[in-house]
Amino acid sequence: MEKGMDDRWITVWGGNEDLIDEILSLSDIHKGEAETIAMALEKNDTVVIAERAATKMARAYGIESVGLMGIIVEAMKKR
Questions:
Q1: Per-residue DSSP letters for 11-76?
Q2: C-beta of residue 16 within 8 angstroms of C-beta of residue 38
Q3: What is the tens place of the pLDDT at every residue in 59-71?
Q4: DSSP, res 77
Q5: Considering the entire predicted model, what is its pTM?
């Protein structure tokens, strides 16, 4: 992990705690999923989420989400 951080392909995001708390108050998803959604909102990016409730919450915020099957399909297309 340290090498990935040194090479800058892994970054640590501090998180917007107010936004994370807002997302958590509106759903029953886990904190890590709320953090993922908050980061996607701040970075205007797609999110990879496996849990249905978290996917619904991401969509409620207008975030495009991709699940495991979506990743597998894309990988097969590029094969």
A1: ------HHHHHHHHHTS---HHHHHHHHHHHHHT--EE---HHHHHHHHHTT--EE-HHHHHHHHH
A2: yes
A3: 999 999 998 888 8
A4: H
A5: 0.78
- Cα–Cα distance list, 16 to 2, 22, 37, 54, 63 (Å): 24, 10, 11, 17, 17
Tokens 């990988």 -> residue: 75
Q: What phi, psi does 57 have (nearest 5°)?
A: -65, -40
Structure-token pair, residue 24: 């958590």
Rounded Cα distance, 10 and 37, in Å: 18
